[in-house]
Amino acid sequence: MLILSALTACNVKEKDISAGLKSISADDLKQNISVLASDDFKGRFPGTDGEKKTIDYIAAQFAKVGLKPANNGSWFQEVPLVRITPSSPIKFSVTGAKGRAELKEYDDFVGSTPLLTGKINFDNSDIVFVGYGINAPEYRWNDYSGLDVRGKTVVMLVNDPGYATGDTTLFNGKAMTYYGRWTYKYEEAARQGARAAVIIHETGAAGYPWEVVRNSFTGPQLDLEQNELSNSSLEFKAWITTDEARKLFEAAGLNYDNTVRIASHRGFIPVDMHLKASVEFSNSVARLTSNNVAGVLPGKTRPDEYIIYTAHWDHLGVNDALKGDSIFNGAVDNATGVAALISIAKAFKSLPFTQERSILFLSVTGEEQGLLGSEYYVSHPLYPLNKTVADINMDALDIFGPTRDMTIIGYGYSSLDNFVVPVLNGYGRYLIPDPEPEKGGYFRSDHFSFAKAGVPSLDLSGGIDDYEVGKELGRQERDQWTMQHYHKPSDEYDPAKWDFEGMVSDIKVYFQVGYDLSMTDQFPDWVDGNPYKPLRDKMMENLPK
Ligand SMILES: [Zn+2]
Predict the structure, then answer these.
(1) Which pLDDT value is given to residue 349?
(2) Which backbone phi and psi does 459 adopt, to 5 degrees?
(3) 3 pLDDT exceeds 60?
(4) How many angstroms is it from 446 CA to the middle of ligand 1?
């Protein structure tokens, strides 16, 4: 057992933190996860009864471990949202020389509108295949070059040309850039003035199977009231299956595989498919308030400087259209992260002394709907971002038992890595980079909102090098879980199957990394050339050193 947190390289004062480490227990985790993931909490969807139960429970646990409410005496930060619910079924048809084809919602496509409007109805919008739908001056790549897409429907591939070709000189090679992310693709289509944007799903390129798309993009869609997409020209945003895309290309007289291959190489020219899209559905718009939960532990000597721990509390709610189990309990995703947040707060409070910097424990809403709560936080921070040292995010902890390794998604992006390595090494463990950077994990949880705002953030997650079964089986076991249970009603708490030993070990690492950050006067920084560095440099400019 490691008793001293020895991080001399980062000037951390050595103190006895064993009481903090010892306080992190499987029993606490079991208790909190069993409540948060219970059917009673109805899948923790923002703006529902399930939210009320969830945020009250988290606030009560924060109070119990001795945190202070972080928002002027309140545990809650209100997050204004809009809920956009398309009426089902959405009518989506494509007309070409060979006639008209109706697409089947759920099986062939899913769609919605970002607009705060009651009805979507357009006919015969020209369909253009725009490759990856990317406009990236720094990579000298523009799929919209010379094209006016106003009024048109753009069809595009998910991920980016670097992924498709494996060419390390294209984008970031196999690792997905933000240009590969669906959020970017809709944003860019809106900036270009398109009427509709359709992304072709492909399991490998998206990082998840069709079922995940279907579950996530149907039913009520939430957004921040402030989102610019809701004031754009984009009336319809959709995903279609690969099978449906093949049919579409066939109707256009195009070879799907060839056209897609050409799209991943320089010199691709957008393809007018000579097809027309028609879309019709009614839509209801409601405004609602959701909440981030925030508790703080003031620091002793540098209380105006903050380390933030984040873990989203929300999940996918209930889908009554599903036969059988319709509750998305989100036990792993992310009752585990919230339970870890509570355990880490308790660990800090268990220390026989007070840490030097303040720690903010932030459980955010709307992550599953597009990182909404964390995006709202960085645009309305409770404490200044230039006094925010770092964000440490926890999303879906390990349930398979202890591993020798842990993963940093976005390894090498910032000097925060230097705080993780010695902690892991102290346990005889090691750090690995994201084994699947093509899945774009870096853009898929709340640390990304902080990164986009310039704040160094850490997405540290579980490993695969299982002490019991080794690397290969360790990875298989975890991949299998993702395929079978990720974003499905079967992500349930199962005390008989779950192994809490690995989770406890990983939480100790999260705690110690944050602890070390709280005991130094250093501000970790992005490495040179990182896209998030200029923003950070700017906000830190006028701060006294
Ligand atoms: Zn999650």
Answers:
(1) 98
(2) -105, 85
(3) no
(4) 9
Q: What is the DSSP letter of 40?
A: G
Ligand 1 centroid, distance to 396 Cα (angstroms): 6
Q: Rounded to whole angstroms, how far apart are CA atoms 83 and 87?
A: 13
Cα 366 to middle of ligand 1, angstroms: 10
Inter-residue contact 81 to 366 (CB < 8 Å) = yes
pLDDT for 24-50, tens place per residue? 999 999 999 999 999 999 999 999 999
Span from the CA of 392 to the centroid of ligand 1 (angstroms)? 14
**Residue 383 in tokens:** 């404490």
Q: How far is the CA of 330 from the centre of ligand 1 (A)?
A: 8
DSSP for 177-197 reads PGGGSHHHHHHHHHHHTBSEE
Q: What is the CATH number of domain 84-285?
A: 3.50.30.30
CATH code for the structural domain at 8-66+298-540: 3.40.630.10
Q: Tell me where in the chain the CATH 3.40.630.10 domain(s) lie.
A: 8-66+298-540
Spatial distance between the Cα atoms of 50 and 36, rounded to a whole number of angstroms: 10
CB-CB contact of 510 with 462 (8 Å): no
Dihedral over Cα of 171, 172, 173, 176: its sign: negative
Start-end of CATH 3.50.30.30 domains in the chain: 84-285
Distance CA 210, CA 386 (A): 40
**What is the Å distance from ligand 1's center to 368 Cα?**
7
Question: Tokens 């090679």 — which residue?
Answer: 173
230 DSSP β-pair partners: none
Q: Nearest to residue 353, comparing CAs of 14, 61, 10, 63? A: 14
- For residue 372, the one-letter residue type is L
Instruction: State the average pLDDT over residues 447-471.
Output: 96
Structure-block tokens of residue 451:
């990164």
pLDDT at residue 545 tops 60: no
